[in-house]
Amino acid sequence: MRGIYGATAGMLNSFAELDSISNNLANLNTVGYKKDYNLFKSVYEKEIRSYQDEKDRGTSIGNIYSSVVLDEVIPDTTQGSLVETNEKLDFAIEGTGFFKVERNGNFFYTRNGDFSVNQEGYLVTKEGDYVLDNQDNPILVNPEDFFVDNQGNISGTDVSLNIVDLENFTKYGYTYFTGQEIESTTPFELKQGYLENSNVNALNEMLRMIEANRKFDILQRAVATGDSLNAKLIEVTSNF
User: Fold this and answer.
1) How far apart are CA 69 and CA 84, in angstroms?
2) What is d(CA 7, CA 13) in angstroms, rounded to the nearest whole number?
3) Which parts of the chain have pLDDT scores under 50?
4) How many CB atoms neighbour CB 11 within 10 A?
5) How far is CA 42 from CA 5, 36, 104, 220, in A?
6) CA 16, 22, 23, 28: dihedral to nearest 10 degrees?
7) What is the DSSP letter of 79?
């Protein structure tokens, strides 16, 4: 049975890998999206439960004494390619850093610079959240005369777009992050009239998917083989 438990744990890991890959591929064309990857960890002992009722805790069906389980899902913040749009309200960061935005008094951070202007004349994200300046204030914009230099300084004002570095960050939704602001030590260049593509590489994700499917198939056969052996063992021993 422990062989079946081990193979089943591996199948669950394959499911998690496929979920991550599917999410990455679904956001292949999402501006500023950062792909996810899974981190797994080994455990010396893990309780195995039956989850016929998914929302319940399930029933313990035994332990395995060494296994690999999903530890956490990590966003990969490597630079995505930049595409020129020539739109004054489109921005991309080349280098590290995030745009700081505000929603209902809460701060979030994003690499998605696909901005617009709301009815009140403020620079907002596509979700309607305020893009903030370096004083954490919303930015009033004249779309006909809105120019920003490569360090985020807004022409004709003494403020700039608030671009910050983060540590201990986690993804919030598809293109937002939360985390702790830190002083930037890496130079960046802000590019007006550009957007940053998703950093998902479709070919690499497809290769990952093929590999995860192969692992799942192998483990599925291992479970079936183990089940057949157990059935045979029960049949043989029942004759004594």
Assistant:
1) 42
2) 10
3) none
4) 18
5) 15, 20, 41, 21
6) 150
7) P
Q: Which residues contact 48 (CB under 8 A, 6 or more apart)?
A: 5, 8, 9, 60, 61, 62, 63, 64
d(CA 20, CA 77): 15
Conformational region of residue 86, where left means phi above 0, alpha means psi within -120 to 50, and beta covers everything else: left
For the chain, helix (H) and strand (E) counts, in that order, are 2, 15
193: left (phi over 0), alpha (psi -120 to 50) or beta: left
Per-residue pLDDT tens over the stretch 39-82 = 888 777 767 677 666 666 677 767 666 777 888 889 999 999 99
Between CA 74 and CA 106 the distance in angstroms is 22
pTM of the model: 0.81
| Residue 185: strand pairing partners | none
Question: What pLDDT, on the 0 to 100 scale, is given for residue 240?
Answer: 65
Whether 133 contacts 162, CB under 8 Å: yes
Question: Using CA atoms in the order 23, 29, 34, 37, what is the torsion angle rounded to 10 degrees?
Answer: 30
